[in-house]
Design a protein that fits this description.
With 149 residues, this protein is of the alpha+beta class. It has one domain. The protein has four helices and four strands. The strands form two sheets. A two-stranded antiparallel ribbon has the order 1-2. The chain has a two-stranded antiparallel ribbon with strand order 3-4. It starts with 30 loop residues before the first helix and ends with a helix.
Length: 149
């Protein structure tokens, strides 16, 4: 019979602290608020509207054309997405056609699971106001430079 020895359990450990100096592009603080409001705090892909105990929407504002690639902090370059869907969009597992059909990458290792997260229409739920819809130029940029269908 194999017996394992238990080492003493530590509740706390001391760690070294390393100073880190970096730089990143400045983003508009109001971008998130404007995008979340435009989508009524609802994920455009799943349709979920989750509000935490503090009253804050759990949806995130995703850039369609990333800031690092010259994308502006405007509502038409944004889309409200839940955390997991935002991650998939940024890693180009999903994309959007100009008419907001949700595209699943053929490079995805589990496309059926991704499709199970998509709302039943198969199209992103747009903002109430037409002028706040994702601009086709940003959607096309994302498909051409990021998404591999």
């Amino acid at each position: 019979m194999l017996r394992e020895e238990r080492l003493p359990f530590q509740l706390e450990i001391q760690r070294d602290r390393v100073a880190n100096l970096g730089s990143r592009l400045v983003r508009d603080r109001l971008f998130r608020r404007r995008v979340v409001e435009a989508y009524g705090a609802r994920c455009a892909v799943t349709g979920l509207k989750l509000i935490n105990g503090g009253g804050r929407a759990e949806v995130e504002a995703a850039h369609i054309r990333p800031v690092e690639s010259g994308g502006p902090d405007i509502v038409t370059n944004g889309i409200a997405l839940s955390g997991t869907v935002h991650w998939m969009f940024d890693r180009v597992l999903i994309g959007l056609s100009d008419d907001l059909e949700i595209l699943v990458s053929r490079q995805a290792n589990d496309p059926d699971s991704i499709r199970s997260l998509i709302n039943s229409s198969g199209f992103a739920i747009p903002p109430q106001r037409p002028l706040e819809r994702p601009h086709p130029a940003f959607l096309a940029w994302h498909r051409q430079h990021c998404f591999k269908h």
